[in-house]
């Protein structure tokens, strides 16, 4: 998609909650000469791991790693981003003990815990989106699945219809509405 839409490959992108940096690296490899990714995470460990992966894949010239919470480290690029991508913590706190062992035992709580209904971080991201994206900009958020995605599509379409269009839930390979995407007016 980064290569297919005009202007995307040379735009500036943010990967919010970059973790290992996998998304930032993948986007960086699609970018043109002027493209750039800001990879943000509040965890110092994640930032260090992302830094290693960015070096391993040789995309240091395209990825700038920033330590901090969500939009806070992006003050200087407000209104200039072509895309925002985030796979934030979205599991409801009460569901954490029931997660599959490969997730619950190995992932830090900081990477999973989305608060009471799982939406705490996703709502914060929705609130801040319009201040960082430029007109024509794109966003994609991963969610816990159907209910969260449907809720967010309805919320964004109702509350921020003047800022966003073509907001929709997108299926994953298991036919679950896993992602919410949209464009900035
Ligand atoms: C589900 S993991 C996603 C990691 C990676 N992007 C991926 O898709 O594999 C969520 C990430 O969000 C980060 N995170 C949690 N709270 C954050 C905050 N307030 N600001 C920025 N990142 C945060 C966690 O440290 C973790 O790396």
From TrEMBL:
InterPro entries: DNA_methylase_N6_adenine_CS, HemK-like, Methyltranfer_dom, RF_glutamine_MTase_cyano, SAM-dependent_MTases_sf. GO terms for biological process: methylation. Keywords: Methyltransferase, S-adenosyl-L-methionine, Transferase. NCBIfam families: hemK_fam (TIGR00536). The lineage of its organism: Eukaryota, Viridiplantae, Streptophyta, Embryophyta, Tracheophyta. GO terms for molecular function: nucleic acid binding; protein methyltransferase activity; S-adenosylmethionine-dependent methyltransferase activity. Residues 15-168 form the Methyltransferase domain. CDD domains: AdoMet_MTases. Pfam families: Methyltransf_31. The keyword Ligase does not apply. It comes from the Eukaryota. This is Release factor glutamine methyltransferase.
